[in-house]
């Protein structure tokens, strides 16, 4: 399953994102894609 989460702070790291969703189950992969502008 892929989940899109928008409007993240530029300070958000993949580890922080993983921690935020860990209470709902194991997060196998987290990837943050930043703007290319």
In short:
This protein has 37 residues and is mainly alpha-helical. It has one helix spanning 14-21.
Can you describe this structure?
The structure is a single chain. The protein has 37 residues and is mainly α. It has one domain. The protein is 22% helix and 0% strand. It has 1 helix and no strands. It starts with 13 loop residues before the first helix and ends in a 16-residue tail after the last helix. 0% of the residues are buried. The mean pLDDT is 88.
Tags for this model:
37 residues; mainly alpha; 22% helix
Profile the largest sheet.
none
Enumerate the spans where pLDDT stays under 50 for 5 or more consecutive residues: none
Total separate domains: 1
Distance between the termini: 28 Å
Series of H and E elements: H
> How much β-strand is present in the residues?
under 5%
Q: Count of helices? A: 1
Q: Roughly how much helix do the residues carry, as a percent range?
A: 10-25%
Number of E strands = 0
Radius of gyration: 10 Å
Structural class: mainly alpha
What is the mean predicted local confidence, pLDDT? 88
Shape: globular
Task: Please specify the SSE layout and strand pairing.
Elements: H1 14-21
GO molecular function, one term: RNA binding
Domain RRM: 1-37
Protein name: RRM domain-containing protein
């Amino acid at each position: 399953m892929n989940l899109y989460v928008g409007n993240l702070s530029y300070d958000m790291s993949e580890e922080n994102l993983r921690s935020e969703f860990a209470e709902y189950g194991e997060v196998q992969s987290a990837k943050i894609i930043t703007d290319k502008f």
